[in-house]
Amino acid sequence: MSTSRFAEQLNTQIGNEFAAHQQYVAIAVHYDALTMPAMAAYFYQQAIEERGHAMMMVRFLIDTDRDVTIPGSDAPQSRFDDIVAPVALALAQEKRVTTQIHELTRIARDENDFAAEQFMQWFIKEQVEEVAAMNDLLTVVTRAKDDIQYIEGYASGRPSVSDPTAPTPAGA
Questions:
Q1: Are 90 and 24 in contact (CB under 8 A)?
Q2: CATH number, domain containing residue 62
Q3: Alpha-carbon distance 79 to 112, whole Å?
Q4: Domain assignment of residue 58, yes or no
């Protein structure tokens, strides 16, 4: 198996994606404990998506004959002061992941790794959607923080869309 700076950084990103998975589970549990089932379901689904992203990266590394290392992660934040704070944290996390994805793409480009650069294009598109959706959710939760039913209605109305252009995850 070969290594490259891109492969090393993608392994790091796998850890970031699993950390995001755990953070979204913690947020979902927070809303679940507040008896906000739609918000809980929204974040449980986000957690599944983040795990899927990590597994897509694992599959890419395997398929391109590169080493795979699954890094550990710190415990997620699980206590929040109100119903707005978890969504604000989630938006900050999505913005951080966007920066990480852009850096991975730059590294692939610098290394003339065309397969890696093409692989990262889906994640760039995904991050645009994720940041926009989380930004919208934060706006709604901030405006309606005293109207849980409205927030729940908004969260339950969010469509879940499967993307046939998504990379195949390992184990699929």
A1: yes
A2: 1.20.1260.10
A3: 44
A4: yes
pTM: 0.93
Nearest to 77 by CA among 69, 85, 65: 85
d(CA 42, CA 24): 9
Q: Rounded distance, CA 81 to CA 130, Å?
A: 24
* 44 in a structural domain: yes
Q: Is residue 89 part of a domain?
A: yes
CA distance 115 to 60: 9
Domains: count for the chain: 1
47-97 pLDDT, tens digit per residue, is: 999 999 999 999 999 999 999 999 999 999 999 999 999 999 999 999 999
